[in-house]
From TrEMBL:
Protein name as catalogued: DUF1343 domain-containing protein
Domain Peptidoglycan beta-N-acetylmuramidase NamZ C-terminal: 245-395
Organism, as annotated: Siphonobacter curvatus
Gene Ontology MF term list: peptidoglycan beta-N-acetylmuramidase activity
Record domain Peptidoglycan beta-N-acetylmuramidase NamZ N-terminal: where: 43-241
Pfam families recorded: NamZ_C (PF20732), NamZ_N (PF07075)
Length: 396
């Protein structure tokens, strides 16, 4: 009997390990699941440099398989992902395939009716990182709006969220709605793009609470808690896996006087400012870098602060919460408290309240509230979001 039980648990252990060790396959990689669906249709792609099948750009791969791609729509940072944050991107023509590329981050925010007259369906395939202020979920929203308005179906080739384990932060308040925050969600939502699209539909966030017709190709062998290393960096300033994992925790520093390393080749992995000299030994110097950041905060000045390039991000995964200690620490260390949140002191695109989604967090940091007190103020909104989120999940 004991031998039978032992053999059972050995078999179960090997089986479980085999199940969990299967490679993650993105929606785009599961070609057999959607290629027949695209064949014979005039297709428009919403893609960028992260849109790959295997290691090959999706555009090239689909064209070689006989898919009729009539145009490409590119988001922030452009179709090739080489434009700086916030930089307007113009229309162009893909030099390799000759397909027209229309920008969704310039005068046009979503596909226009005249853009879709020769289109049967759209395909959305862009890697996201799971943060509210990362603008690709805004692009998704606007594309869904356009599909509804023009009676087009949207195919979503889903991709893992590298921060899929993290659901945390204050819920965006309505009066702080902006280009870096369109939805009443926390800072980190822990969803894939396809799950988020289902939430947009289900919560009636489209105009007149319309519903976009979706055809979702799921990720295979994926769970939200699984680590996922991105094969292609999603934007110029998220150029390492470390920066992607730290991004939800430190992007709100963009609304402060503290540099997050824009203007270096290791953005979103360092924090500092000239006024912190003498308080920290580590320093870095932001400079103008074309395609990454021109005229960065504290340009050509030595910034002193924290070096997080070797920080063990497993600690973040273990806690399952946003790190507030860096924000509290840097505020306490900064000598001129009145300048810390003063948006007039720098040229970044977002002020702190819009990035955090609430005025409360700034006020709480200034008032010296503890982390426990700050987190308590996120309720009941955060718990309500977590409950609502469950309705739209496609993965455990």
């Amino acid at each position: 009997m004991r031998l039978t039980i032992l053999l059972f648990w050995l078999f179960f252990g090997f089986y479980t390990q085999a199940q969990t060790s299967k490679p993650i396959l993105t929606g785009a990689d599961r070609i057999d699941e959607y290629l027949p669906y695209l064949k014979g249709k005039r297709v428009a792609l919403v893609v960028n440099q992260t849109s790959i099948i295997g290691s090959r750009p999706s555009v090239d791969s689909l064209v070689s398989r006989g898919v009729q791609i009539v145009k490409i729509f590119g988001p922030e940072h452009g179709f090739r992902g080489n434009a700086s944050n916030g930089a307007k991107v113009g229309d162009e023509r893909d030099p390799k395939t000759g397909i027209p590329v229309l920008s969704l981050y310039g005068k046009r925010k979503k596909p226009l009716p005249e853009d879709l007259t020769d289109v049967d369906l759209l395909v959305y395939d862009i890697q996201d990182v799971g943060a509210r202020f990362y603008t690709y979920i805004n692009t998704l929203h606007r594309v869904m709006e356009s599909c509804v308005e023009n009676k087009k179906e949207l195919v979503i080739l889903d991709r893992p969220n590298p921060n899929g384990y993290l659901v945390d932060g204050p819920i965006l308040e309505d009066h702080l709605h902006s280009g870096i925050g369109m939805h009443r969600i926390p800072v980190s939502h822990g969803m894939t793009i396809a799950e988020f699209a289902q939430m947009i539909n289900g919560e009636g966030w489209l105009t007149n609470k319309a519903t976009c017709q979706l055809h979702i190709v799921k990720v295979a062998n994926y769970r939200h808690e699984l680590p996922y290393d991105l094969p292609v960096m999603p934007s110029p300033n998220l150029n390492t896996q470390q920066s992607i994992l730290l991004y939800p925790h430190i992007c709100w520093f963009e609304g402060t006087i503290i540099s997050q390393g824009r203007g270096t080749y290791f953005p979103f992995t360092v924090l500092g400012a000239p006024a912190l000299k003498g308080k920290y030994a580590f320093s870095f110097k932001p400079v103008s870098i074309k395609g990454m950041k021109e005229e960065p905060l504290h340009e050509n000045q030595d910034c002193y602060g924290l070096d997080l390039r070797k920080y063990d991000t497993r600690q973040l995964r273990k806690s399952g919460r946003l790190n507030l200690q860096w924000l509290i620490e840097m505020y306490l260390a900064y000598p001129d408290k009145d300048r810390f949140f003063d948006k007039s002191q720098h040229k970044e695109i977002g002020e702190f309240d819009k990035l955090s989604g609430t005025e409360q967090l700034r006020e709480q940091i200034i008032a010296g509230k503890s982390e426990a007190e700050i987190r308590k103020s996120w309720e009941p909104g955060l718990s309500q979001f977590k409950t609502m989120r469950k309705k739209y999940l496609l993965y455990p």
